[in-house]
Amino acid sequence: MNINDYSGVLVYVEQRLNEVQNVSLELLGKGRKIADELGVQVTAALIGKNIEKHARLLVEYGADKVIILDHDSLELYSTEPYTQAMVQAVQSESPEIVLFGATSIGRDLAPRVSARLLTGLTADCTSLEISEERMLLMTRPAFGGNIMATIVSPDHRPQMSTVRPGVMTKMERDAQRVGEIIHFPLQIVKNNNFVEILSFEKETEEKQDIQEATILVSGGRGVGSKENFTLLYDLADSLGGLVSASRAAVDSGWMDHDRQVGQTGKTVRPNLYFACGISGAIQHVAGMEEAELIVAINKDKGAKIFEYADLGIVGDVHKILPFLIEEIKKINLTKKIQD
Amino acid sequence: MKIVVCIKQVPDTNEVKLDPKTGTLIRDGVPSIINPDDKAGLEAALRLKDQYGAHVTVITMGPPQAKVALQEAYAMGADRVILLTDRVFAGADTLATSTTIAAALQKLEFDLVITGRQAIDGDTAQVGPQIAEHLNIPQISYVSAFENHGDHAIVKRSFEDGFQKIKVSYPCLITALSELNEARYMSVMGLLDAHRILEIETWGFSDIDADIERMGLKGSPTKVKKSFTKGAKSAGKMVEGSPKELAIAIVDKLHEKFMI
Lengths: 339, 260
Known about the structure:
The complex is a heterodimer of chains A (339) and B (260). Chain A has 339 residues and is an alpha/beta fold.
């Protein structure tokens, strides 16, 4: 393999029920930065059925080129037809870098593609950089977030990685951006690896996604009980945010797992993160340290969380929050009157 | 029905601590366990054994001490256990690991291969799908429910926003979520037998048909360039006072940052 035969960044664009997922736009943003540094192009591989309408959006978020891989067998995500599509996209584009979102789809597809192409794959990256030798430096947490490792793929191309949702930043949408849009001559071959999807059920309860929230009020063991979370909900409501939790609170049954922040939960980067009664275990910090402003409230002056907070409040969550909610409500009211 | 379950022995990462002075992992005294997702997968296989008389083989790749994980699997009810161990296999990334395990599986008969979704030390979730690709069989990952129907299975495949019900013909590979089921305890007799009569089959490179260039560190496209512990970002201001004063301090900060 001559690694100089490979050039450019290819992003797998994940869509679900024909909606482009946020993580793919984040990857286009990161891909754009990397490509500019390398002086190469960003290509988006848009895979699905009747998905052409999204191509323009991908250009506006950073793609130089969009290849549309459209086929009847690609309506719902299924490993084999998606692998065939992605492998053909890689073989025709010969990119030096391929990025997938580290979702339950990306983490199923990417390893299958990497094994078919016999190239390396690094999972769940939280940072991507380019080295002086033009190599992709892929940094990821391991040992439950206790340790970070930087992985390289020196002699194999493409260099592939899955990237955690919520870690990279989208480009600002630019309606003026120009890009090429191409229909790819895709060949899907039916084989023994195909499975039959009998049904797809969307989770009926409309889940609020903490990764989309700009303000999070997060509670930990120090909140004390499920009932005490009411205060956190009140604060979140007054600020227009959502409530999330640490693993300790989720394990205690005070909050659903889909609201868990941290290594075994979700990575979030809101504008404002309240850590209420959270001690600051490294597994938790790994999921929230990128928040723009971190306010920590904890009775224990020595709590680890204070090392990461922009503002450390030493005190009792249950006593402070009622005053805080009252103050914010006052401000909201004044604003309303002024409007 | 023949089932092979792939398990990994991992350090209990909940017990892993950092040395505050050197910033390195303290592994001494950290207990080794069967990776939780793998254990749920093993339990699924043992239930198929209970219900349909399936034959369950458990295989693990690792250093010689990984035999402890196999003793536990045997004591839980596995019929046959195999330890894949060889210096040649050491230092493998996920691609080399999956290549090695797939080569070993080629030596066995199976209708169903079960792995855990991911291991708690590496968290990659890559080895299962990569084994399936090397074996050229379908994979279903993130499986949270499994039903056997003779020549095929119907499984529940979880996504963040819902789930698919999938019909898949044997042979196939599934990766199990911990939610798939709760693993049973070892039986007392099983535990005694695991230590008294069980001879663990040990396979090395010469026991499988594989290309040595694709094994271990040499066969790994990815390399660890460096590993480090994260330094904390510089801590911000700390405030103490009455609850009301503290609430005001927060409001002031939010004003300063134009958050309210």
